[in-house]
Amino acid sequence: MITSRASAAFILTLFLLSPLRAETNAYSAVRSASDFAIGGVGVAGVMTREELAMREIRDSAQAGEQLRKLLREATPAGQMYALFALRQLNSTDYVALSAPYRQSSTIVPTISGCIVHTQRMSETVRWIDQWAKKIRTWEKP
């Protein structure tokens, strides 16, 4: 009887912690992103692990908190994912949060389809301003 209770408690603990673990993995993926890529990349048009992780964070209950934390902790590419998600969420403080990046000449490795290139953060933010909300409407439910 003790063994089955211990097993049940262990399984329940794993079940309850799995969303936290997934969120932690998503956060880590965005935080350490080496490239910024929205939409499919490569010949097959596969969505990157980091974009999927950004969507997971964006759609979570703690999205605002996690995305703002990424702006402080992430690589330049990860920061752009965070801004992208905040723009998609129509965050009221998006303009203020994006302001420092609008003047930044920090280089962001970017992938567009099959093309790998670099661009300044300021250019990436202008692209996010223009496309983030539109792209959200194209997502499949």
Commentary on this structure:
It is built from six helices and two strands; from the N terminus they run H-H-H-H-H-E-E-H. The chain is 65% helix and 9% strand. Helix 1 (2-31) crosses helix 2 and helix 2 (49-58) crosses helix 4 (76-88). The protein starts with a helix and ends with a helix. Residues 5-22 have low confidence and may be disordered. The longest helix has 30 residues, at 2-31. Strand 1 (107-112) and strand 2 (115-120) form a beta hairpin. The chain has one domain. With 141 residues, it is mainly alpha-helical. It has a two-stranded antiparallel sheet. The protein has helices spanning 2-31, 49-58, 63-73, 76-88, 94-102, 121-138, and strands at residues 107-112, 115-120.
Topology:
Elements: H1 2-31, H2 49-58, H3 63-73, H4 76-88, H5 94-102, E1 107-112, E2 115-120, H6 121-138
Antiparallel strand pairs: 1-2
Helix pairs in contact: 1-2, 2-4, 3-4, 4-6
Number of helices: 6
Query: Averaging pLDDT over every residue, what do you get?
Result: 88
- N-to-C order of helices and strands: HHHHHEEH
Provide the low-confidence segments as ranges.
5-22
Alpha-beta classification: mainly alpha
> Main β-sheet, in a few words?
2 strands, antiparallel
Strand order of the largest sheet: 1-2
Q: What is the 3D form?
A: globular
Query: What portion of the residues fall into strands of 2 or more residues?
Result: 5-15%
Tell me the count of domains: 1
Q: Can you count the beta strands?
A: 2
Helix percent reads 55-70%
Calculate the terminal CA-CA distance, rounded to whole Å. 44 Å
Cα radius of gyration in angstroms: 18 Å
